[in-house]
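Worked example 4.2. Below are the chains of a multi-component assembly; read each line carefully before continuing.
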Amino acid sequence: MLLPIELAILDAGLTIQPREGSFFGFALARTLAERDGSALVSHGTLYRALNRMDAAGLLESEWEAPELAEADGRPRRRLYRVTGAGEAAFRAAARTEQQRGTVTGEALA
Amino acid sequence: MSGRSDRAVERAARATLHWTLRYTGGLDPLVAADRQDEILSDLHEQTAWATEAGIGERATARSIRARMLRGIPADLGWRRAQLSGREGIRLSLPRVDGLLLAAVAVIGVVQVGVGAFIAARHVRALLIGDIGFIPNAAALTIALGSVALVATALLGHRRTRPWGAALLAVTGLLIFAQSVNALYYLSATALLVINGVTWLEPAAYAVGTGVAILCLAATAQWANPARRPSAASAASALTGEESR
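Applying the procedure described above to all two chains together yields the following structure tokens:
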């Protein structure tokens, strides 16, 4: 069973991924907040969900190269990608949710 | 931007990192370092984004602190999962929502009961001439109980539920301590207990604070459309995996 936060992460991730190649935690938080006009999701909720989804194989992650972050003068980002299993899980759950209007469905387009 | 407000962001970020160090303490060093680095990156990204978006330093600091505070239960749950080696049994969100509603409804009923009890005792005391006036603490307790009655009724509809829980947070914070003070005028036993047990009023406020925190958590849960059970009950989907 996907929790709403997991469904929302997959939805946002699958929207960002084709454009950026991958996504990181705060980019997700910002996208989720912009979508539903809510406050930025808490650190604990976001990173616990990402951690759980990574362990479950719905996402894969890797730390970006330190030199890239150094060149930009910022800390390294942990970059996530939605896996095939994650996309399949999202599509199955989103069809149900879209009928209820609880996901944007952008990623399904 | 003033130097003082600059420091507000820095202080909020430091508080968040300090909390991260606390809840990652004693975990596998690699897991702990990953979480610490990820939070550090998040804080940097949020600050950079807020600056670019023209968001004030104070608003950014408030947002960072709010994100940290709202995430504490999840952080502790994550820590527990890391220590036990599994995420644990996950309750379905509709069930969690039902339990939360039941808990807040019980809180509402208890508050109404406290207000009604104080009202009944004071009316009786007035009728038999034990007291000649309604003390402020009793009047406030009765008023809070009445508000709690309205708030409990608001829990009945999904749309008004967050308002009901928010009202119960306010009444819950005050009603227990006020009811202790109200009893002072009525009961010789209560008088002795209140005078003898110095921690009674702080304890009543502590109970009230706990009740208020639970009700505020329920308000946040019900006010956020993304967490409503209609979204949660989605379900059917972890392809090839059993429900986690």
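Take a moment to check your reading of the output against the notes. Chain B has two domains: 7-84, 93-229. Residues 93-229 of chain B form one domain.
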